[in-house]
């Protein structure tokens, strides 16, 4: 398992940017395909094992992601969004795909109790096809 924060630069660092956040009531869960450059290959499947959409989280938890593809998974990543701040939390290229997260902090600062956090799991297959899924959790 590899856990990175925004201040550490790697070859796969995406960075922090501002992005609007939809609420769980209007966007309970999103899934999508970000890149179809895999030459006709089906997009990888990616989902959250833990936490689940709508969960309340507190303390340090292990975020678990499931990802699969007929041609294999190159890596997964976890992105967090609170308010308008969006940042890469980490990358993992070894199954099981897990990220240890102290729910009190985001790479841009503290997360206030009651804040809604969007978590985005992204999977990239061995052909470079990328797909993602979003869930929303509440920080207790």
Describe the protein's architecture and organization:
This protein is mainly β and 140 residues long. It has a single domain, classed as Immunoglobulin-like. It is built from no helices and 12 strands. The chain has strands spanning 17-18, 30-35, 45-50, 56-57, 60-68, 73-82, 85-92, 97-102, 105-106, 109-110, 116-125, 130-139. Strands 1, 2, 4, 6, 7, 11 and 12 form a 7-stranded mixed beta sheet that branches. A 3-stranded antiparallel beta sheet has the order 3-5-8, with no helix packed on it. The chain is elongated, with a radius of gyration of 14 Å. The protein starts with 16 loop residues before the first strand and ends with a strand.
Can you summarize this structure?
The protein is mainly beta and 140 residues long.
Detail the topology: elements first, then pairings.
Blueprint: E1 17-18, E2 30-35, E3 45-50, E4 56-57, E5 60-68, E6 73-82, E7 85-92, E8 97-102, E9 105-106, E10 109-110, E11 116-125, E12 130-139
Parallel strand pairs: 4-12
Antiparallel strand pairs: 1-7, 2-12, 3-5, 5-8, 6-7, 6-11, 9-10, 11-12
Number of helices: 0
General shape: elongated
Name the structural class: mainly beta
CATH superfamily: Immunoglobulins
Fraction of residues in β-strands: over 45%
The first-to-last residue Cα distance is 26 Å
Overall pLDDT level? 80
Structural domains: how many:
1
CATH architecture: Sandwich
Helix proportion range:
under 10%
């Amino acid at each position: 398992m590899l856990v990175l924060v925004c201040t550490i630069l790697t070859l796969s660092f995406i960075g922090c940017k501002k992005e609007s956040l939809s609420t769980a009531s209007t966007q309970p869960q999103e899934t999508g395909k970000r890149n179809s450059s895999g030459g006709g290959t089906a997009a990888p499947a990616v989902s959250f094992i833990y936490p689940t959409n709508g969960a309340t989280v507190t303390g340090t938890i292990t975020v678990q992601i499931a990802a699969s593809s007929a041609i294999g998974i190159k890596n997964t990543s976890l992105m967090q969004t609170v308010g308008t701040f969006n940042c890469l939390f980490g990358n993992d290229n070894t199954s099981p795909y897990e990220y240890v997260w102290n729910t009190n902090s985001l790479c841009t600062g503290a997360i206030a109790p009651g804040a809604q956090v969007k978590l985005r799991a992204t999977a990239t297959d061995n052909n470079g096809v990328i797909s993602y899924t979003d869930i929303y959790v509440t920080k207790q």
